[in-house]
Amino acid sequence: MEFRIHNLNAWAPGLDSNETWQAWAQQPIRVPDNNEQPSCDFLPAMQRRRLSRLARMTMHVAWPLCAEGEQLPFVFASRHGETPRTFALLGEVADGQPLSPTQFGLSVHNAIAGQWSILRGQHGESVAIAGEADTFEHAMVEAAALLGDGAKSVLVVIAEERPPAAYDGWIDDVPFSYAVALKVGNIESADDAAAGERWQLRLEPNTGASPSGAWPHALNFMRALHTGESRLEHAWKTRRWIWQRNP
């Protein structure tokens, strides 16, 4: 698969600008996560109140990458999804309390993609993915398929929220909450053939061990974009993903 990254945007607690991400890429640390969330003040207050923290993170990174009136296929990817909202619902079940239909409806994995479509007035395709440690790569496969079907550009968001403490020992791949949005297009762009970085992603069999990395691969990719690395590898189970920056 070959594609261009026309634009990107990312957010994490304390990391909300190109300069702060550049500094993090040079010296990555586990940033404090005290439930900060983007303000999303581009939305009316009533609409903001319905958004979870994960949804706010998604809207915050995706909104600037979609031009006014632009229709973009949307790929939302998250390995764990709305864990705080789901955990609260499970607590209500355990306590014998009635569940809120609204909270339940917003806890399903494609809810954020639906909220994006409604709030942004998008009428095209949307995909919600929950994969394993290589969820990011599977999101890019979906984007490549949409581009192959004729989409001019695709908006990809991968987002994870730090889960409740009850999940400690089971979820160990979210060092802090983060969201990364990429606007990707085909290598040959009719509008601007020079726009965006060219990348290739290919899949090979993995025959060795797959040790857990220090960072989720979406964050490793952010590091590569800011440090100029030209090649990354990400192995998970039987899959070995190879990222190559092309000149």
Brief overview, please?
By secondary structure, the protein is an alpha+beta fold. It is built from 8 helices and 8 strands. About 30% of the residues lie in helices and about 25% in strands.
Task: Compute the number of strand runs.
Answer: 8
The tally of domains stands at: 1
Spatial shape: globular
- Class based on secondary structure composition and strand pairing: alpha+beta
N/C terminus separation: 15 Å
Which architecture would the CATH scheme give at its second level? 3-Layer(aba) Sandwich
Report the radius of gyration as a whole number of Å. Answer: 18 Å
The fourth-level CATH homologous superfamily is Thiolase/Chalcone synthase
What is the top-level CATH class? Answer: Alpha Beta
- Poorly predicted tracts of residues: none
Question: What about the largest sheet?
Answer: 8 strands, mixed
**Proportion of helical residues:** 25-40%
Describe the structure.
The protein is α+β, with helices and mostly antiparallel strands and 247 residues long. It has one domain (8-191): 3-Layer(aba) Sandwich (Peroxisomal Thiolase, Chain A, domain 1), CATH 3.40.47.10. It contains eight helices and eight strands, in the order βαααβαααβαβββαββ. It has helices at residues 18-26, 45-49, 53-62, 83-94, 101-107, 111-120, 135-148, 217-227, and strands at residues 2-11, 74-77, 126-129, 153-160, 178-185, 197-205, 231-236, 239-246. An eight-stranded mixed sheet has the order 3-2-4-5-1-6-8-7, sandwiched between helices. A hairpin with a 2-residue loop joins strand 7 and strand 8. Helix 1 (18-26) crosses helix 8 (217-227) and helix 4 crosses helix 5 (101-107). The protein is globular, with a radius of gyration of 18 Å.
